[in-house]
From TrEMBL:
<dbReference type="InterPro" id="IPR001128">
    <property type="entry name" value="Cyt_P450"/>
</dbReference>
<dbReference type="InterPro" id="IPR047146">
    <property type="entry name" value="Cyt_P450_E_CYP52_fungi"/>
</dbReference>
<dbReference type="InterPro" id="IPR017972">
    <property type="entry name" value="Cyt_P450_CS"/>
</dbReference>
<feature type="binding site" description="axial binding residue">
    <location>
        <position position="465"/>
    </location>
    <ligand>
        <name>heme</name>
    </ligand>
</feature>
<dbReference type="Pfam" id="PF00067">
    <property type="entry name" value="p450"/>
</dbReference>
<dbReference type="InterPro" id="IPR036396">
    <property type="entry name" value="Cyt_P450_sf"/>
</dbReference>
<keyword id="KW-0503">Monooxygenase</keyword>
<keyword id="KW-0408">Iron</keyword>
<dbReference type="GO" id="GO:0016705">
    <property type="term" value="F:oxidoreductase activity, acting on paired donors, with incorporation or reduction of molecular oxygen"/>
</dbReference>
<keyword id="KW-0479">Metal-binding</keyword>
<protein>
    <submittedName>
        <fullName>Cytochrome P450</fullName>
    </submittedName>
</protein>
<dbReference type="GO" id="GO:0004497">
    <property type="term" value="F:monooxygenase activity"/>
</dbReference>
<dbReference type="GO" id="GO:0005506">
    <property type="term" value="F:iron ion binding"/>
</dbReference>
<keyword id="KW-0560">Oxidoreductase</keyword>
<dbReference type="InterPro" id="IPR002401">
    <property type="entry name" value="Cyt_P450_E_grp-I"/>
</dbReference>
<comment type="similarity">
    <text>Belongs to the cytochrome P450 family.</text>
</comment>
<keyword id="KW-0349">Heme</keyword>
Length: 520
C-alpha cells in the first residue's frame, strides 16, 4: 500500500510542523547571536513548585522570593504550575526595559485576563492596546491636581472613621481596635465618591446592608481569584476540571461573591443612568472662591457608552486600585507606627509644628517631609502590589541576566512571561544600602538616594498608576488627622513581625491591632 492515505496524512502534518519548528529555532538563534544573548541561571521546576507551596502555607511567600534571588541571581528562568518557562527578575534595567523602553514588546497577556475576568471583566487593568488606551483616557481627568487638592472629601470620611471607632477601654483609657478593616471601608467610601459621584458610606452601614455585603463579597472574590487561576493552568488543569465536574454547574461561594458585587454595583449604575438622562453630564460644584467641575468617572464614561456591563467592568477595575492599595498602605503605616513610638513622636511633632490642630491644606501636606518619608518607606518594604508580570508580544531581548556573571542579554520568546517582584526589588542592598531590610524612613532624607527603577511602588512607564498622587494625598491626610486626634499609639498584636496576606493586593495577615490614646 505505497499510496496508503495514513502515511501520506502523517507526512503532510509532520513535515510542515517540523519546518515551522526549525524556522522558529533558527530565527531565535539568530536573534540571540545578534545581541550576544546567553541563558540566565535556571531553577528546577519541581524545586520551584515545592518551595512555593511550603512558603504559601507558612505565609512567607514574599520572603521566599528574596531568598531565592539572593541564592540564584537577580534574573533567572524556571517554571511554576504551568508548562511554560518563565523569566523572573529584580534587575532595574530589565524592569525598565519591560515597562518603558520596550513597552510595545510586552503586554499584560491572556493570563492576566483569565485571572481577573471572572471578577472585573475587561478594563484598564486587564486590557491591552487600544482598549487600554481608551480606558486610561477616561480615567486620567479623575486624578488631576484640582481634584486631588479637594481635601474636603477626605475630611468627611475621616469623620466617619473616627465615629466608627469603639469606645475607650475602661482599663487602659485607650481605644483598642483593628484599623485595617476600617481603612478598607474608608477607602471604599472615598473611591466610590470619586468614581460614582456618591459614596457607599460603608463606615456608616450596618452589618447586612447592601454596601456591607458588597465589601465582604469583594474581599472574598479577590482572595479566591488566585486559587481558581492556579487550578486552570498546566498540569493542575485536571484538578480544575474535577472541581467543575463535582460542582455539576452549581455555584460556589466565589460565584456568589461575584454576583453580590455585580448586583450592588449594577443597581448603582442603573440609578446613575436614570439621573444622567434627566440632568446631563458634569454638574457644577461650588467652592469657596470659584466654581469648578466635579469630575466623576462615571459621568465621563456614560458619554461614551451606556452599556451597564461595560460600565461595571471599568469601575471595578479602578475600584481595586483606588480602594485596596491605599488601604493596604495605611494599614502598614499604622502597623509600623505601633511598633515605633519614637517614629510616632517624630512625625506627630512635625504635624503639630506645621498645622497644629487645623485640618491640613494640600500645600501643607506637601511640606511634611517626615510624613512623606514614612509613606515612602512603607511602600518600599511593604508594597501593596508586591509582584507583577508581563508577556512578550514578540521575540525580544532583556539587557541583563544571562551568562555566569549575569551581565549578558537574555532572549525572551514571543508569548513568554517575565515576572518581576517589587517586594524583593525594594530590598536590594546595592540600591538602598546594607540596611535595606530595615524600616528606616530617614533614608529618604539622603539626597544621594536615587533608586530610579529600583523603586516602583506605583509601577512605571506608560502604565504607571494614574492615582498615585491621589493615594499619597489620601494617606498623608489620614495620618495627619489621626495624629491630631490621638496622642499615642501602642500595638495590641502579640507578634512583632509583619506577616503577609497575599491576594490581588497584599496586606497584613494579622491586621493592624492597636490601641490609640485620645488627645486630651
Amino acid at each position: 500500500m505505497l499510496f496508503s492515505p495514513v502515511p501520506l496524512i502523517c507526512i503532510l502534518i509532520i513535515v510542515p510542523t517540523l519546518v515551522h519548528v526549525l524556522r522558529n529555532w533558527w530565527r531565535l538563534r539568530a536573534l540571540a547571536a545578534a545581541h550576544g544573548c546567553r541563558p540566565p541561571p535556571r531553577l528546577s521546576r519541581f524545586k520551584n513548585i515545592r518551595q512555593q507551596m511550603a512558603a504559601l502555607t507558612a505565609h512567607s511567600w514574599l520572603e521566599m522570593w528574596c531568598q531565592r534571588y539572593a541564592a540564584v541571581g537577580t534574573t533567572f528562568e524556571s517554571a511554576t504550575v504551568g508548562l511554560d518557562s518563565i523569566i523572573f527578575t529584580i534587575d532595574p534595567e530589565n524592569i525598565k526595559c519591560i515597562l518603558a523602553t520596550k513597552f510595545s514588546s510586552f503586554a499584560l497577556g491572556q493570563r492576566r485576563r483569565n485571572l481577573l475576568s471572572p471578577l472585573v471583566g475587561t478594563g484598564v487593568f486587564t486590557a491591552d492596546g487600544k482598549g487600554w488606551e481608551h480606558s486610561r483616557s477616561l480615567i486620567r481627568p479623575t486624578f488631576t491636581k484640582v481634584r486631588i487638592a479637594d481635601l474636603g472629601m477626605f475630611e468627611s470620611h475621616i469623620q466617619d472613621l473616627i465615629a466608627a471607632l469603639p469606645p475607650c477601654s475602661p482599663y487602659s483609657g485607650m481605644i483598642e481596635v483593628d484599623l485595617q478593616p476600617l481603612f478598607f471601608r474608608m477607602t471604599l467610601d472615598s473611591a466610590t465618591e470619586v468614581l460614582l459621584g456618591r459614596s457607599f458610606h460603608s463606615l456608616r452601614a450596618p452589618a447586612g446592608s447592601p454596601f456591607h455585603r458588597f465589601m465582604e463579597a469583594f474581599d472574598y472574590a479577590q482572595l479566591k481569584v488566585h486559587t481558581r487561576d492556579l487550578l486552570d493552568r498546566g498540569w493542575m488543569k485536571p484538578a480544575g476540571l474535577l472541581r467543575r465536574l463535582f460542582r455539576r454547574g452549581r455555584k460556589d461561594r466565589f460565584d456568589e461573591a461575584c454576583e453580590t458585587v455585580n448586583s450592588v454595583l449594577d443597581e448603582t449604575i442603573r440609578d446613575f443612568l436614570g439621573e444622567f438622562k434627566g440632568r446631563g453630564p458634569l454638574q457644577e460644584k461650588t467652592g469657596n472662591d470659584t466654581k469648578q467641575k466635579l469630575y466623576v468617572l462615571l459621568d465621563e464614561m456614560v458619554q461614551s457608552t451606556q452599556d451597564p456591563l461595560e460600565l461595571r467592568y471599568e469601575l471595578l477595575n479602578v475600584l481595586i486600585a483606588g480602594r485596596d492599595t491605599t488601604a493596604s498602605l495605611l494599614s502598614n503605616v499604622f502597623f509600623m507606627l505601633a511598633r515605633r513610638p519614637d517614629l510616632w513622636a517624630e512625625v506627630r511633632l512635625e504635624v503639630q509644628q506645621t498645622v497644629g490642630h487645623q485640618p491640613p491644606t494640600y500645600e501643607a501636606l506637601r511640606d511634611m517631609k517626615a510624613v512623606r518619608n514614612l509613606l515612602f518607606e512603607c511602600l518600599r518594604l511593604y508594597p501593596p502590589v508586591p509582584f507583577n508580570s508581563r508577556c512578550a508580544t514578540t521575540d525580544t531581548v532583556l539587557p541583563r541576566g544571562g551568562g555566569p556573571d549575569g551581565q549578558s542579554p537574555v532572549l525572551v520568546r514571543a508569548g513568554q512571561a517575565v515576572n518581576y517582584h517589587v517586594y524583593a526589588l525594594h530590598r536590594r542592598s546595592d540600591v538602598f544600602g546594607p540596611d535595606a531590610d530595615t524600616f528606616r524612613p530617614s533614608r529618604w532624607n539622603d539626597p544621594s538616594l536615587r533608586p530610579g527603577w529600583g523603586y516602583i511602588p506605583f509601577n512605571g512607564g506608560p502604565r504607571i498608576c494614574l492615582g498615585q498622587q491621589f493615594a499619597l494625598t489620601e494617606a498623608s491626610y489620614t495620618v495627619v488627622r489621626l495624629m491630631q486626634y490621638f496622642s499615642a499609639i501602642e500595638r495590641r498584636d502579640p507578634e512583632l513581625q509583619w506577616k503577609e496576606h497575599v491576594a490581588l493586593v497584599t496586606k497584613s495577615r494579622r491586621g493592624t491591632r492597636v490601641a490609640l490614646m485620645p488627645e486630651a
